[in-house]
């Protein structure tokens, strides 16, 4: 069984236990002859896959009444992976979603680390700092780099922790965010787990 999470830049594959990525620009999905179950946020890639019968879009098996119309399929799959907790997907955007008793309760979106960094730089080159994930968020900062980091990280940390639930981290910056959520669970396979759960519900495993 081959699973694939297609983003804006990569095809992220899970072939049994083997995980690997291919470039969206360079990879030809028609070269695959095996059946592939996928989710996709890339509009152009979705157009290509629509005509390939061995590529099966898992979004058709989702009960969208549990979510909202414009919610990203990647966020939905992460929520489908757990029964209770807060999912923090730290990618180009940071999404935070709440799941209680397998029910999506809502969520919110922050700019990702790179995006917020560009925002500060656009205000002034004097604010062009990388984020300091090592700072003590229980103390007020006394330098510019920490002041920028604190303003973003403290707000996010406080909001996420306020739900008093297990925290699940995924996404490209998850290993940085675990520094401000030390008791969280880092799971880079979270979306794939959600995909497998959808397949079980649809009896297509």
Automatic annotation (TrEMBL):
Alphabetically list the UniProt keywords: ATP-binding, Coenzyme A biosynthesis, Cytoplasm, Kinase, Nucleotide-binding, Potassium, Transferase
User: Top-level EC class, please?
Assistant: transferase
**Would you tell me the protein name for this molecule?**
Type III pantothenate kinase
Q: What is its EC number?
A: 2.7.1.33
Q: Annotated pathway, please?
A: Cofactor biosynthesis; coenzyme A biosynthesis; CoA from (R)-pantothenate: step 1/5
Cofactors named for this entry = NH4(+); K(+)
Catalytic activity from the UniProt record? (R)-pantothenate + ATP = (R)-4'-phosphopantothenate + ADP + H(+)
Q: What is its main location?
A: cytoplasm
Q: Which organism is it from?
A: Sulfurimonas xiamenensis
């Amino acid at each position: 069984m081959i699973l694939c999470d297609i983003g804006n830049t990569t095809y992220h594959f899970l072939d049994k236990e083997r995980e690997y990525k291919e470039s969206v620009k360079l990879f030809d999905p028609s070269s695959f002859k095996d059946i592939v179950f996928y989710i996709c946020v890339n509009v152009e890639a979705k157009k290509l896959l629509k005509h390939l019968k061995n590529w099966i879009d898992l979004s058709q098996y989702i009960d969208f009444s549990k979510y909202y119309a414009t919610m990203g399929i990647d966020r939905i799959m992460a929520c489908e992976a757990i029964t209770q907790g807060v999912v923090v997907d730290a990618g180009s955007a940071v999404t935070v979603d709440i799941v209680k008793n397998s029910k999506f309760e809502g969520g919110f979106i922050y700019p990702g680390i790179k995006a917020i960094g560009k925002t500060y730089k656009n205000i002034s080159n004097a604010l062009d700092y990388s984020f300091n994930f090592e700072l003590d968020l229980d103390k007020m900062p006394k330098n510019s780099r920490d002041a920028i980091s604190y303003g973003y990280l403290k707000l996010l940390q406080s909001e996420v922790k306020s739900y008093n639930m297990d925290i699940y981290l995924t996404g490209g910056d998850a290993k940085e965010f675990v520094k401000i959520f030390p008791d969280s669970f880092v799971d880079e396979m979270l979306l794939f787990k959600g995909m497998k759960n959808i397949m079980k519900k649809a009896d297509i495993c």
